[in-house]
Write a structure and sequence with these properties.
The protein has 127 residues and is of the alpha+beta class. The protein is 24% helix and 43% strand. The chain is built from four helices and six strands; from the N terminus they run H-H-E-E-H-E-E-E-E-H. It has a six-stranded mixed β-sheet, covered by helices on one side. The longest helix has 12 residues. It is globular. The termini are far apart. This is Nuclear transport factor 2 family protein. InterPro entries: NTF2-like_dom_sf, SnoaL-like. It comes from Herbidospora galbida.
Length: 127
């Protein structure tokens, strides 16, 4: 199986531009990040991402593996976050999304533990 669908999504996520990311989404899409409340609709999702992105200096994804079944994509990734202090922290994440008939994402969920990202410097191993 090819990682092409996931690569296209993560290439946009890694631009660190919420306005570009929401172009991948249906107007009424839902995004749930970790255990946070879901955001619904492009505007709410972009605002939520802007809030999260203001707490980090950047991010990049390395795809470990993907699965596609019908309209659903599951991607296991290693994500390297750049902290605001310039340090980097790596975590494992799983993202699951559903694509509508028009090719736009209707539901996007990210499962990740961000505790290492926000832990005081020196208390976790950083990459």
């Amino acid at each position: 199986m090819s990682d092409d669908a996931a690569r296209r999504v993560f290439d946009v996520v890694d631009t660190f531009d919420p306005d570009e990311f929401v172009k991948l989404l249906a107007e009424d899409a839902t995004l749930r990040f970790g255990n946070a409340a879901p955001n619904k609709g492009r505007e709410a999702i972009a605002a939520g991402l802007r809030g999260f992105f203001s707490t980090i200096g950047g991010l990049r994804h390395r795809i470990v593996r993907t699965w596609e079944t019908g309209a659903d994509v599951v991607a296991e990734t290693e994500v390297t976050y750049t902290r605001l202090d310039g340090g980097e922290t790596g975590v494992v994440a799983v993202s699951i999304w559903t694509v509508g008939d028009d090719g736009l994402i209707t539901d996007y969920r990210v499962f990740v533990d961000l505790a290492p990202l926000y832990a005081p410097q020196g208390s976790v191993v950083t990459t």
